[in-house]
Write a structure and sequence with these properties.
alpha+beta; Flavocytochrome B2, Chain A, domain 1; 2 domains; 5-stranded mixed β-sheet; 6 helices; rod-shaped; binds protoporphyrin IX containing FE
Length: about 140
């Protein structure tokens, strides 16, 4: 598509209403606003695909050649790929984040018990040695 208009992800994302709906599919930008009511899959599904790269959603449906033939008439340009946020940039889910420290806390507690036992044993040995030492002095 030589000379196609290039949009930033932020710009495309702003068109997220029924009357003004832009989609990103395979690097291209589609203004599907006039197609919302005609779309056999419904308008909700198209709206849900705004604000992101909808390529996977589009492909997962297994759209026929008929659907692909309809696409060029809604194409208004391309998206600047460098402006699309990486999927991996999103944070770890809160439950995962809180789940991680648990094994560390458990092993820390185990180490603490071992250390307490070792300290007690050391004290007992010291007490015994002192008693023996004192006894040998008096003899
Ligand atoms: C320019 C973009 C799109 C066009 C021109 C388009 C066109 C079509 C057409 C013609 C059909 C009828 C079945 C077929 O011929 O494949 C269809 C069905 C469907 N489309 Fe799209 N579509 C577009 C984008 C999307 C997107 C982004 C989604 C998001 C998931 C989607 C979801 C669906 C669903 C759920 C169906 C119904 C499938 C079924 O009932 O089996 N479409 N679409």
């Amino acid at each position: 598509m030589a000379g196609a208009k290039v949009y930033s992800f932020k710009e495309v994302r702003e068109h997220n209403e029924r009357k003004d709906c832009w989609l990103i599919i395979a690097g291209k930008v589609y203004d599907v606003s006039p197609f919302m009511e005609e779309h056999p899959g419904g308008d909700e599904v198209l709206l849900a695909c705004t604000g992101k790269d909808a390529t996977a959603d589009f492909n997962d449906i297994g759209h026929t050649a008929t659907a692909k033939e309809l696409m060029p008439q809604y194409c208004i340009g391309e998206v600047d790929a460098s402006t699309i946020p990486s999927k991996h940039a999103y944070c770890v889910a809160p439950e995962d984040a809180s789940a991680k420290p648990k094994p560390d806390t458990a092993s820390e507690a185990a180490w603490l018990t071992v250390l307490q036992l070792a300290a007690t044993l050391l004290l007992l040995v010291l007490a015994f040695a002192l008693q023996r030492f004192a006894k040998s002095k008096t003899e």
